[in-house]
Amino acid sequence: MAARARSAVPLRIAGAQGGPRGLTELQREMVACRACPRLVAWRELCGQEKVKRFRDWSYWSRPIPGFGDPKARLVLMGLAPAAHGGNRTGRMFTGDRSGDFLYAALHRAGFANQPTSSHVDDGLRLSDAFIVAPCRCAPPENWPEPEELRRCSVWLDGELGFLKKARVLLALGSVGWEAALGHFARRALVLPRPKPRFAHGAVLRLEGAPALLGSYHVSQQNTNTGKLTPAMLDEVLARAKELF
Q1: Topology of the domain comprising 2-6+15-243
Q2: 195-211 confidence digits (pLDDT tens)
Q3: Is the pTM here over 0.70, yes or no?
């Protein structure tokens, strides 16, 4: 129990692995953000009214910076931290079932040095992969509002701007797909019309931008029902490598 409590609160920002100074500074500003009152209230409430199995943890309860290799060619776009996952541990997809599913797949594909992630000091490192999200605070019902996504886009654009070697944006779900399209639009890239729709395995190529690849989200709803299987995610990651 003592070890669990010690690992619960990150003593450092669990962000880029040896990233440039500007990325580190951006992430330090990010974790201090309080721009969305609804999200601030919810993330902090979850850290106070803990679920029984995590009652001994001290929650992070702040925005979650991106995590991984700043020289990555693959950038994964999630949705938002889980209330008792990333919001508790302080690292993307760490400490919940979605993360268990995702990191196991990244390990099989050679992007992660281990298949599990339980806390920020567990030794996990990503190679050639980086994880971001369009919403950095845990939202009620796991669903951010449009205005919250708009405010948070400054952090998404900022992090992606430092990932100079990115070749593929892997959108985990429709929100990630739309966030990627929004990022491209803010970069003044010309999007096809009609706007490309999200689908599992869908690919969008734009001149001057990483390829956009779609996958069903690694949510428990999708993985428990078989909508997304390990084999399906393995195939998507293999396709990402082909797009490099």
Answers
A1: Uracil-DNA Glycosylase, subunit E (3.40.470)
A2: 999 999 999 999 999 99
A3: yes
